[in-house]
User: Fold this.
Amino acid sequence: MLYHVSGMLPVISTQPLSNLELTLSPDGSRVSNHKCSNLLDYSEIQTKHGFIKEPARSPDIISETLPYQYSSSLRSARTLRFYHNLDLDSCLWEFSNYYDMSELLTACGGSVSTDGQVLNLVQSHVTLRVPLFVSYVFHSPAAIGGWKHFDLRSELRLTFVYDTAILWKEGIGSPPGSELQGTLHPTSMHINEEGQLVVDFQTEIRFQGQFVMSHPGTSLTSVVMSVDHPGLTFTLTLLSSEPTFHRPEQRWSFVSDFAIRDYSGTYTIKLVPCVAAPQQEHTLPMTCHPREPIAFDLDIRFQQVSDPVAAEFSLNTRLLLFSKKELWESDERVGSGAGSDVAFPEGSTIYGRVSVEPAQNLGAAFSCSVEQVFLCTGVDGHVPKYNPENEDFGCLADSPSLLHRFKILVGSRPPLYLAGPPTCPG
Assistant:
């Protein structure tokens, strides 16, 4: 809820608010940048629900006490839908909406973090964080852009606790026919920043001795392997071990040597047992007798969740226009924008150059050729965008929002050369 002040417009979004003169206009960036906000009318929302809805209250009932608040002769239908969220009796704005988890992550800019296992390895919890930006906007001719605003920022946190596999409570036992017995308890599982699988576990043995990574008395070593992913290799590490031979607690971790999309499958963890004599005390260096590895089978169902891949991959290319041929032919790296003209005299020759941002430059790993170029300019601040799913066709379709539009066929002659009188300044 937001307090109401005369002349104030409350704006709520999960994206930072900037350039209010453009954001509060019919410009297409409002719909594309603020998918989870009260800036969208009920017909513009791209999620299942929106902040602005068709009015459910009857204006006839309210008109007895507030005859002008919902008057269609004074306010447009879009304004009335917005003002249905204002309660003049309490001077409060109330905006409510509903999102599912997928919408909060993909459309609203949310992020998920995990803190591992809790409650004795039986339950896990994750936290969903959604940014929230609130601005109190006032129209002011003296302000830059015509709008004065007071901005607030917060974060919505939602924590979920869920049950993990029950077998983790009892642990994973060694094969029944094994001479030496032990159990393996998974403690955490996650994907690191490089996309590699990281699994932490601890072991408990039921014999006199310890598990070891290797031993001079044998060529065997403790390893991790996967039948479902035979080409995937792992690095196994013994993190800590209690200095005793009587059922010591040992902590381990293994990391995949490279990343794959789907880690689901059965993983076999083979640990080399080293048996000590009864009543033998633990010393360093450790004295024990290595035996054949004990195998533990761990079932994992883990897939990497990534952002949706665009139908067309963008290399963050930029088109810069020049009026001076020497700048166009220079070796200056396009991307800084230096030397690019912002306006051209009528009848001048325009030179254009397309280049990839330095951060995306892959050298000879790709080639780029330009066959045709569409140039257009919008009316009253409209920025043409190409997104057919949202009925945004950029420069391709005739639109009352376009001031000028033309196409130039370039063929296969890089670099790009645009000649002729400009049809739009800037």
Q: What stands out?
A: The two ends are 43 Å apart (CA to CA).
